[in-house]
């Protein structure tokens, strides 16, 4: 009903507006005095956790893209090797698991059958299973050794939005927790990264304001047949998530690519008028891939692409080459995805709305897929 939507045109519009809160509530009580506390991991225990030599993240859909972001952060901070795999692929390939493997499942609903079966498989193979879940008391957390709840609040729209930013937040907290217990980051480094996380909600608020221009853009694009998304490093999962939202909501063929892969194939798709979203990393980071992504933009522009760049506020290098720039606030490079994904969620929703589609209930999809 209209009341349940709290005055918003759809549950999705409401849920995207709640992205700042989804992050804030997931952080609540888990960072104090600049350090991370995850008592949720107690059932696994420090000793077992200290022996973990490999992490496998399993999930489906949007949750799997959150998992990919988790890999970048957890590996960087804790130096534990992380793999990310779709639950339905993991389960059927005879994966190598033992007591030193930590399997991290991610599921908003906690009921996705593919992920549940993978969790059961992993526990049977004596791996430790930690689940990141948004639904209290769901089946997946009950089948796991430990659970970190995301506190995004109930998500009603079929396509996941606010749960994604909450899942990334939980994974980053896990990364910092592991770095703390292994001593791979100093106390100062943990405090800096924790502060970056705590600053995210206010920054998403800023992104929600500037993203209003996306609505106009979506209205001009109702006849578009195909949209590409490019990103590098942590921008890559963001590109995949942007493409998934467009398929799910607007029924438009969309693909996300790692920008470095452009020259190995996808650039052949570029013809005049092709819309390409590019997630641009910050130019401030000394190891930044910024110059490489800017040169990707030049390459596709030279072939007639229309470029919509999501770039850091004040990034002057991008301006001459992009048709449209969506500015995001300054953040540490691992944290940029939590900001850059927001305009892409809005874009998918607005384009679907402009096409007159039901953004909350896209055709052929279910909120939680309880069959394998
Ligand atoms: C369905 C939804 C997606 C979601 C995926 C995983 O396919 O349409 O939006 O990302 O399931 O759901 P889960 O509840 O496991 O996060």
UniProtKB/TrEMBL annotation:
It is an enzyme of class 2 (transferase). Its EC number is 2.6.1.16. Keywords: Aminotransferase, Cytoplasm, Glutamine amidotransferase, Repeat, Transferase. The active site is at 367 (for fru-6p isomerization activity). It is found in: Cytoplasm. It catalyses: D-fructose 6-phosphate + L-glutamine = D-glucosamine 6-phosphate + L-glutamate. GO terms for molecular function: carbohydrate derivative binding; glutamine-fructose-6-phosphate transaminase (isomerizing) activity. GO terms for cellular component: cytosol. Residues 44-184, 217-362 form the SIS domain. GO terms for biological process: carbohydrate metabolic process; fructose 6-phosphate metabolic process; protein N-linked glycosylation; UDP-N-acetylglucosamine metabolic process. Homodimer. Catalyzes the first step in hexosamine metabolism, converting fructose-6P into glucosamine-6P using glutamine as a nitrogen source. This is Glutamine--fructose-6-phosphate aminotransferase [isomerizing]. The chain holds residues 245 to 616 of 616 of the full protein.
């Amino acid at each position: 009903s209209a009341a349940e939507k709290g005055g918003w045109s759809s549950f999705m519009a409401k849920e995207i507006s709640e992205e700042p809160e989804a992050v804030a509530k997931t952080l609540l009580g888990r960072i104090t005095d600049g350090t991370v506390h995850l008592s949720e991991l107690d059932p696994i225990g420090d000793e077992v956790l200290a022996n973990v030599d490999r992490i496998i993240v399993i999930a489906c859909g949007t949750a799997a893209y959150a998992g990919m972001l988790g890999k970048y952060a957890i590996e960087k901070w804790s130096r534990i090797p992380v793999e990310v795999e779709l639950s339905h692929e993991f389960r059927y390939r005879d994966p190598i698991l033992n007591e030193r493997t930590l399997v991290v499942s991610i599921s908003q609903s906690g009921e996705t059958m593919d992920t549940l079966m993978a969790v059961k498989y992993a526990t049977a193979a004596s791996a430790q299973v930690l689940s990141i879940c948004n639904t209290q008391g769901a089946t997946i957390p009950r089948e796991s050794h430990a659970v970190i709840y995301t506190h995004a609040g109930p998500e009603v729209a079929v396509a996941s939005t606010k749960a994604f930013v909450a899942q990334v937040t939980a994974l980053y907290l896990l990364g910092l927790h592991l770095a703390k217990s292994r001593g791979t980051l100093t106390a100062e480094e943990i405090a800096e990264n924790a502060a970056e996380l705590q600053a995210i909600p206010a920054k998403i608020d800023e992104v929600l304001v500037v993203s209003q221009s996306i609505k106009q853009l979506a209205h001009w694009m109702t006849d578009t047949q195909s949209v590409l998304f490019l990103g590098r490093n942590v921008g890559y999962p963001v590109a995949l998530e942007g493409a998934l939202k467009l398929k799910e909501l607007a029924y438009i063929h969309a693909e996300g690519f790692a920008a470095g892969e452009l020259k190995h194939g996808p650039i052949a798709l570029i013809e005049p008028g092709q819309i390409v979203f590019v997630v641009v990393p910050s130019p401030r980071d000394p190891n930044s891939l910024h110059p490489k992504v800017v040169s990707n933009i030049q390459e596709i522009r030279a072939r007639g692409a229309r470029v919509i760049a999501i770039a850091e506020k004040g990034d002057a290098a991008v301006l001459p080459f992009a048709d449209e720039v969506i500015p995001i606030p300054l953040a540490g490079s691992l944290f940029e995805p939590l900001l850059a994904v927001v305009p892409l969620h809005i874009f998918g929703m607005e384009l679907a709305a402009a096409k007159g589609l039901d953004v909350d209930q896209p055709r052929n999809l279910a909120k939680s897929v309880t069959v394998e």
